[in-house]
Amino acid sequence: MYNKRKQLLKVVNILNKLAYVTGATSGIGKSLVLTLLKANIDVIGLGRNDDKIKALESEVEALGFKDNLMIVKGDLSYHEAIVDIAKQTKELLEKNNLRIDFLCHVAGRVTSGYHISKDHHELTFQVNHLAVVDLTYQLLPYMNESMKSRILVVSSQSHYRANINFNNLETKTFYTILRSYKRSKLYNVLFVKGFSKMNQQMPIYAIDPGLVRTNIGEKNTSKLASFIWRWRSKKGIHPEVAARHMLNVMTSSEFDHQSGSYVRHGIIVSSNPVTYKEQVIDRLWHETLNMLDIKDFFAKKN
Ligand SMILES: NC(=O)c1ccc[n+]([C@@H]2O[C@H](COP(=O)([O-])OP(=O)(O)OC[C@H]3O[C@@H](n4cnc5c(N)ncnc54)[C@H](OP(=O)(O)O)[C@@H]3O)[C@@H](O)[C@H]2O)c1
């Protein structure tokens, strides 16, 4: 719980920076939470599962950072739940007189079989892309507008192998686990490019962590896909390495004027050539905003 000491520090203006991390209870997100806390950055972590939230809180308490972590519980798989996440976040921020410095979209899923969300969107598309856009829209008014603030969207090297088909954006036909995942990660990069084009006040980056040893491929997948992932991910890096690269993007002045960049293993590299096509960036931006019924992405005020 944020305490009186925090209020006092706020008055004398030496309060830690505040990061908002989705997917805070496992894998890269959990490592990021711990890395940020150790770097004196306070965290609001978004989790969806009570047991995992408790486990994270216990680990954080054991490290002595209990007062530096706040939790919001919510589901990114449909719009109404995202509105609720934003409402809880707003209440938490207002109660503690805080604003967000770093917004880190880490949550994501890989899904065997075609599944539809409550809002009738394909689930991987919903959680990996629509939720990123929706939550950014909802939380942007609560962020510190500064060239030192950051939005990070975790994409993936798999986006290089994705194509875009505006007649089948959600992979509602010809669905395969990889086609849907790769496309959602391509959309992450296109969103970052679109956002950076339209907003020069808030730096935003697409993060490619490389192959990371997590359980993502075992959560919503078939036995075969799960087996393949277990075997493949053994060659991956530890999530803490990915988290340290992200911390560097958030805090190093090297990234100050690099908004819209694709950062792989902590280094700016080129993304899929299609992500540089203005027409593609603009069309995905407009199609996504139409789906979410957002008229003007940057008009929302708190
Ligand atoms: N692992 C890799 O090699 C790799 C490579 C490139 C990119 N990435 C990306 O890295 C990000 C993190 O993945 P990871 O590998 O760390 O896997 P992970 O451990 O499974 O983390 C995914 C996180 O997303 C959360 N999540 C999933 N669906 C959600 C929903 N509907 N509502 C709220 N939270 C939800 C999960 O919650 P729970 O904790 O409750 O499960 C989990 O915390 C993903 O975006 C992934 O695409 C991973």
Please tell me the overall pLDDT. 94
Strand order of the largest sheet: 3-2-1-4-5-6-7-8
Q: At the third CATH level, what is the topology name?
A: Rossmann fold
User: In angstroms, what is the radius of gyration?
Assistant: 18 Å
> Could you say which small molecules are bound to this protein?
NADP nicotinamide-adenine-dinucleotide phosphate
| Shape label | globular
Number of domains: 1
* CATH superfamily label: NAD(P)-binding Rossmann-like Domain
- Overall structural class, as computed from helix and strand content, comes to alpha/beta
Helical segment count: 9
Give the proportion of residues in helices: 40-55%
CATH architecture: 3-Layer(aba) Sandwich
Q: Total number of β-strand segments?
A: 8
Residue stretches low in confidence (pLDDT < 50, at least 5 long) are none
Strand content: 5-15%
The biggest sheet, with number of strands, parallel, antiparallel or mixed sense and barrel status, is: 8 strands, mixed
Instruction: Determine the N-to-C terminus distance.
Output: 24 Å
- Write the element-wise H/E pattern from the N-terminal end onward: HEHEHEHEHEHEHHEEH
- The CATH class turns out to be Alpha Beta
Report on the architecture of this protein.
- The protein has 302 residues and is an alpha/beta fold.
- The chain has one domain: 3-Layer(aba) Sandwich (Rossmann fold), CATH 3.40.50.
- 42% of the residues lie in helices and 12% in strands.
- The chain contains 9 helices and 8 strands.
- An 8-stranded mixed sheet has the order 3-2-1-4-5-6-7-8, with helices on both faces.
- Strand 4 (102-105), helix 5 (123-139) and strand 5 (150-154) form a beta-alpha-beta unit.
- Helix 2 crosses helix 8, helix 5 runs parallel beside helix 6 and helix 6 packs across helix 9.
- The mean pLDDT is 94.
- NADP nicotinamide-adenine-dinucleotide phosphate is lined by residues 23, 25-29, 48-49, 52, 75-77, 106-109, 127, 154, 156, 209, 211-212, 214-216, 219, 236.
- Residues 23, 25-29, 48-49, 52, 75-77, 106-109, 127, 154, 156, 209, 211-212, 214-216, 219, 236 line the site of NADP nicotinamide-adenine-dinucleotide phosphate.
